[in-house]
Amino acid sequence: MDPVRFNLVVRALESIPSEMSINMLKAAYSSIVREAKDLSTALFDPEGNAVVQAEQIPILVAALSSALGYVIEKHPLDTWEADDCIITNDPYHGGQHLNDIALFAPIFKGKKRVGIAGSIAHHLDLGGIEPGIIGSATEIFHDGLLFPRIKFKLLDGKLDPIIEQILKSNVRVPRETYGDLQAQIVANRTAESRLLAIMKKFGSLDVFDVMKGLQDYSEKLTRKEIDSFPNGEWSGEAKIDDDSQGNGPFTVRVNVKIKGSDLFVDYRNSDEKAKGTINCPYASTLAATYTAIRQVVNTRVYVPANDGSTRPIIVDAPLGSIVNPTPPASVHARFITAYRCYEAVMDALSKAVPNRTTAVGFNSTFCLALSQITEDGYKIMSETTAGGWGAGPKNDGADALPLPLSNCSNVPAEWIENQFPYLRVTRYEMINDSCGHGRQRGGLGELKEYEILMDGINYSGMCDRFIHPAKGILGGTDSAKGELKIIRKGKEINLPSKTSFALKKGDLVRIITGGGGGYGSPNKRKIELLKRDIKQGIISKKIARKIYNFDYDKHIK
């Protein structure tokens, strides 16, 4: 095919998941989807291979392929018909944690299946033992409602009434949960109309050729980059503080082998599954692994994200381990261990290609829910708070931005206070000196504080990095750690990273995230960077003297 025409079709296809995401956001109801944007979308070819994906949440984008693979295993593609829809959130068959519900729908042109639309979103509440965010679960039954790859017919573009009744009877916020699922249906319908329009414009055969060609192109680029890495084997590891049940630390261990253009990732020495909620299903382990490798590959060339880009990567995660648990283990806080998978792979690759990797970031999104129950039912405000990124060989780490497996936005204070009258946001700021230092500094962590305006409010949340900080690399120093404090009548109550707590009117909930690790030992160029950082308030004069023996006041005189 003519290269110009090929690229025109590629750009047209790439617009589909982007528009899917936009329409889902417009139709969504909950704070976690509509404001935090915890969702993703993808378009698959007729055989179920990912062709184009939205630039949304990496851990969700990469996991849609796993979920669809298990769906097809249960419901072969030749049984799919127009208006079919498959719902799944089963973490033991390609899913993430239960709050991440995936919806898949076939796209037909006449009687021929020409593609598959996929959407996934984090739903505000799916039942479980705590509202919104569950930090204390010990089994999958504590996590909430499970949909085991159910195929049903859309009726006038809506969920099957039986599924709707089951859903609304088992969640605390039925309006938001049902509304967000309907928003996913809107996204999938968007994919259908846009793909058919593109086929009408360019012709079905050309579109099919591009679907295949784009995946082959991604594989070719990925193999070329891996082939430029040195052959050999390298190990890496990362630690998790605890599992909320008094156990820990836990260690994720990995061995990375590079042989030509193939890359093998082996987690066989990782710890066994945990009693608490931090177990990471295999699909999340895959997604985290692919994200780390993709980040290293993309330092020199942009590789379109599709199933072709993962063909050179072989991942082995032993069944029964913390990175591939067996039922009925809880997986609600799986993102914590997924981040340690990402870090362990990055640690190993830093020994193979040190100039293409970064120091460790905070890499533990602070997920919290502040809920109230009234005569009219539950209200749940849920959001995520980020930390600092690790520094790279030529750049400082990003300050308080969504971390590598995430891409969630902060929920605006105005929206929180308008929708949840029991809350007020009193502080939201970056934390000086929370970063690791070195030739390049890590990113800063942040502080967010909520004032509780009524009695009867419950906090639930999960995080990590309260014990083990983000480590520096190649001479860089470690970052500060995270903290959770309740300020009650002027006194501080320190809470663990994974917990729930009954709040009172007047309490302040203070969320503190750590920064990213530093990169490299300081050199002469660091003097100018220190002057800049002190002027901007990023680093204090005290820290500059302590770590770098740099006296700012004396230097500028």
Structure, described:
The chain is built from 13 helices and 19 strands. It is an alpha+beta fold and 557 residues long. A hairpin with a 2-residue loop joins strand 11 and strand 12. The strands form 4 sheets. Strands 2-1-5-4-3-6 form a 6-stranded antiparallel sheet, sandwiched between helices. Strands 13-14-19-16-17 form a 5-stranded antiparallel sheet, with helices on one face. A 4-stranded mixed sheet has the order 7-8-9-10. Helices cover 32% and strands 23% of the residues. The longest helix is centred in the middle third of the chain and has 29 residues.
Please specify the SSE layout and strand pairing:
Blueprint: H1 3-27, H2 31-35, E1 39-44, E2 50-53, H3 58-74, E3 84-88, E4 100-109, E5 112-122, H4 140-143, E6 150-153, H5 161-170, H6 174-202, H7 204-227, E7 232-240, E8 250-259, E9 262-266, H8 282-297, E10 313-316, H9 334-352, E11 366-374, E12 377-385, H10 413-419, E13 423-430, E14 446-452, E15 457-462, E16 483-488, E17 491-494, E18 499-503, E19 508-512, H11 525-535, H12 541-548, H13 552-556
Parallel strand pairs: 9-10
Antiparallel strand pairs: 1-2, 1-5, 3-4, 3-6, 4-5, 7-8, 8-9, 11-12, 11-15, 13-14, 14-19, 15-18, 16-17, 16-19
Helix pairs in contact: 1-6, 3-8, 5-6, 6-7, 8-9
